[in-house]
Structures are given as C-alpha cells and as structure tokens.
TrEMBL record:
This is Phosphoseryl-tRNA kinase. It comes from Cnephaeus nilssonii. Keywords: ATP-binding, Nucleotide-binding. NCBIfam families: selen_PSTK_euk (TIGR03575). It comes from the Eukaryota. GO terms for molecular function: ATP binding; kinase activity; tRNA binding. The keyword ATP-binding applies.
Length: 358
C-alpha cells in the first residue's frame, strides 16, 4: 500500500506528531469562530503548528457548476469534496516525505489555488525553488511541536467524517471529532444576519439529517467531544485540549492488506455488500417515485427523475464495487454509508424537479 510505505519512510523524519480534527455542526453554529480561537490559543500557549481548512472558503459555491435553473449538481459537489481530500492527502504526503507539493492530476484550478492559498496564509506552505518545477510548493514542517489540521465544515453525514478517518488511518495520524451542538433557532437567527445567508429550509433539512458522533456504536468515533453552543468561548477548555492531546499521542493504526486470504475475504464481502446495497437502493428509488407521483410531478419529469435516480444508484454501486481505500468488510464502512450518500443526493434531485415544477 503506497500510503503505508510513505508513512514508514517518513517515520522519525516528519513532525513528531500530526493530527486531523474534524469540526462539525450546523451552519452558524460557531465552528469558524471556535476554529480561529483554537488556532490562536494553541499557537500562542503551546507553540503548536495549526492549520484551519474551512470548506466554505476553500470550496465556495461559486466553484460548483449550476444547472439551467440555478441548482447545483449533487454529484459535482460530492466530487469536489473528494477532490479537496485528495489535495489534503497530497499535502500530508509531501509533508511526511519532505518533498514538493503539486496539484493532483485533473484538479479544479480554482479549488487548488484556494487550498494552497489557505495553507500559505497560515505558514504551512512556501514556494518551491524554480528547479522543482512550475506552480509547486514545499510544506513547512513544524520546528518542534505537533501539527494539527482542523477541517471546518458541516460534516453532517457520518460517512463524510469517516473519509477523513480513513485518511488518518492510511498515514497513521491522530484523529478526533469536535461536534458543536447549537440550537436550530440560534443557528437560523445567526444565519439570517449573515451576508449571503443560506435558505432557512436548507439548515432545517441539514438538522434533520445530522448524524452526531456516536462513540458507543462506532469504535472509530471514540475520540469525539460534543460542545454545547452556550459553552463555546474564545478559550479551549481542558476537556477540549485533552481530546486533541489524546488524538496526537494515539495515532490511528495503519491497516495494510497482507495476505491472499484477506483479498479473497474481501471479494466475498464485496459481493454480499453489493447485493444488500442494490436491494436497499432499489427500495428507496421505488418509494421516492411513489412520493413524487403523490406530489403530482409531471410525467416527463417523473421519467427524468427515475433516470437520474437509477444513474445515481449505478454510480454508487460501482464505487462500492471498486472498494475505495478500505476493505468493504470494515465495521465502519459498507451498505449504511452507501445508503446515506444515496439519501443525501436523492433529496437534492427530488427538490430540484419539484421546485422547477412550481
């Protein structure tokens, strides 16, 4: 596994400790305010290197391809999130190997420029010598202490956060989750005061879909902390600092495929997972089409919706078959994640056709 080889090659040569912190919660819950305060405090008091990657800044809506009715494409949004994680993985690999950083193949230019600008502004990137090639950068390793990367986004589906966990596992990094629990009405009020406020219904829908960290059910979420909105302040609590220290001092174990039997087991599990996922997605498509008919969607739009849903189903099953970076038999990855992604994008498709009709 290439990631495991990179992690082994860099052991003892990169930063002493390196961790990823997922900061999740509703829009206007106070995530960005807390991230900035946390970065300032950890830099000042503990001399840590801290990088905050705010998805709203690095991946703004302007990068998305809007359709003729002004609706952005859920598959495009999903692709950009994955692309951002690819950029982040490239930075981590370059940092561990102390090599140059360049844009991934096929990277969206605007996203790549925003990502590198974000890291440069925080002192984590510097221009590479001309000999390294055009448009390249060099990571700036911490002088002594650890490096903490804080990913600031809504991350309302568990599958979104699990992708970050997988990245931490591939490179044996620390990993933790910080969930900001803010009342819906408070978020709506704060959002209403923002320029370019989100539609209130978008935030309400996100609250209904929010999958809070559940350490009791999911072992990979054990290093999680919920912070009530009223308890948020400009200073990190001892409990929060303890969460970050625990993540840095106990990196996720890198899992490697090391036997033919494991590959055979994976194939069996993949076949079972594909069957389960296909049956589950077909039931969702059937129920969605029934609800669309009850909502009196026009027959031509019903046909288009059915085609879009089945195309989405085929794409997700293909992704599941390819297997990604982790075994499909993994306790934390499988049919529930695929179903959650389908629900996420299905709701947007239905909303698109219903809003166009009205």
């Amino acid at each position: 596994m290439k990631a495991a080889e990179d992690a082994r090659a860099a052991r003892g040569e990169g930063p002493r400790r390196l961790g990823l912190c997922v900061l999740c919660g509703l829009p206007a819950a106070g995530k960005s305010t807390l991230a900035r305060a946390l970065s300032h405090q950890l830099r000042r008091e503990r001399r840590w290197a801290v990088g905050v990657v705010a998805y709203d800044d690095v991946m703004p809506d302007a990068f998305l391809e809007a359709g003729p009715q002004g609706h952005w494409s859920p598959p495009r949004w999903k692709a950009l999130r994955r692309e951002l994680l690819t950029c982040l993985e490239g930075f981590l690999r370059a940092l561990l190997l102390r090599g140059p950083l360049s844009a991934p193949p096929g990277a969206t230019e605007a996203l790549w420029e925003a990502f590198t600008a974000c890291l440069r502004a925080q002192g984590l990137l510097r221009p590479a010598p001309a000999a390294e090639g055009p448009a390249r950068h060099l990571p700036t390793p911490p002088a002594a202490g650890p490096l903490l990367l804080v990913l600031d986004d809504n991350f309302y589906y568990r599958s979104m956060r699990h992708e970050v966990y997988q990245l931490a596992r591939r490179y044996s990094l620390g990993f933790c989750q910080l969930f900001l629990d803010c009342p819906l009405e408070t978020c709506l009020q704060r959002n209403g005061r923002r320029p370019g406020a989100l539609p209130a219904e978008t935030i309400r829908l996100m609250r209904r879909k929010m999958e809070e960290p559940n350490p009791q059910k999911n072992a990979w979420e054990h290093n999680s902390l919920t912070v009530r909105s009223s308890a948020c302040s400009a200073e990190a609590s001892p409990e929060l600092t303890g969460l970050l220290l625990a993540a840095l001092e106990n990196p996720v174990t890198c899992v490697e495929d090391n036997a033919e039997q494991k590959e055979a087991d994976r194939a069996v599990c993949s076949s079972s997972a594909l069957h389960q996922a296909d049956q589950a997605l077909r039931r969702i498509v059937s129920q969605t089409m029934k609800e669309a008919k009850d909502a009196r969607l026009r027959p031509p739009d019903l046909k288009l919706l059915a085609e879009a849903l089945n195309q989405l189903r085929a794409e997700l099953l293909r992704d599941l078959r390819l297997g990604g970076q982790a075994p499909l038999c993994s306790q934390a990855l499988g049919v529930p994640d695929v179903v959650a992604l389908f629900h996420e994008e299905k709701d947007s498709l239905v909303h698109k056709y219903l809003s166009e009709q009205h």
